[in-house]
Design brief:
Number of strands: 4
Structural class: alpha+beta
Strand order of the largest sheet: 2-1-3-4
Order of helices and strands: EHEHEEHHHHHHHH
Shape: globular
Helix content: 40-55%
Distance between the termini: 29 Å
Largest sheet: 4 strands, mixed
Number of helices: 10
């Protein structure tokens, strides 16, 4: 078995982080290769020959290449299932559907918040400007949904990959000092302490 993950060299992609965490949580050995997106390395013909979308993350499993982080996570959960490897999604159908809903929503909505509180402000330099009206509206929707979804330490009875994705989105507010209920700050802090996430952060701090 051969697994190779392509990620961005700045380690700011929340989607590459999601797949990295998924692989670590599964306990799967993999090779990590980074691409300098600012230099356009993802547009290199050799890379595009594998990753047809020209995006990161890209997972290559025994010659099979796949992009889009949520698709990769679902693929990993099907190909390397529980109990041999840790499950990334809840077993119950409705909870699994909600986890996928959370992932899809975080990737497709909240555009103003994602722009004004990029992950660069989470991992490197904090934002200097207050949120615009549009970003405040995005933040309000995010916080309202998170308050409803999170009932304990996790979204569900146990950890799922959706917890990592939600924590990263909430971190855009938490790390920049924007108003966030203490319950959600505590949730983010718990997710950041996972060994798999800490492994990603170590690469940023090098």
């Amino acid at each position: 078995m051969s697994l190779k993950l392509y990620a961005d060299s700045a380690f700011t992609s929340p989607y590459a982080l999601s797949v990295f965490v998924a692989l670590k949580e599964k306990g799967l050995p993999f090779e990590l290769e980074t691409l300098d997106l600012d230099a356009g390395a993802n547009k290199n013909p050799a890379y595009r020959a594998q990753a047809l979308t020209g995006r990161v993350p890209c997972l290559v499993h025994d010659g099979f290449a796949l992009t889009e982080s949520s698709a990769i996570c679902e693929y990993l959960d099907e190909v390397f299932p529980d109990p041999a490897q840790r499950a990334l999604y809840p077993a119950a159908a409705q909870e699994r559907a909600v986890a996928r809903q959370v992932q899809a929503w975080l990737r497709s909505d909240l555009p103003a918040l994602r722009t004004e509180r990029s992950t660069h402000t989470v991992f490197y330099q904090r934002a200097e400007l207050p949120l615009s009206t549009a970003a405040q509206e995005d933040a309000a929707r995010l916080l309202a949904a998170a308050e409803r979804w999170i009932q304990g330490a996790y979204l569900f009875e146990d950890w799922s990959i959706a917890d990592t994705d939600l924590a990263v989105m909430l971190s855009r507010l938490v790390m920049n000092g924007d108003p966030v209920p203490q319950k959600l700050k505590d949730y983010v802090a718990r997710q950041w302490q996972r060994e798999s996430v800490q492994e990603w952060l170590k690469r940023i701090n090098r």
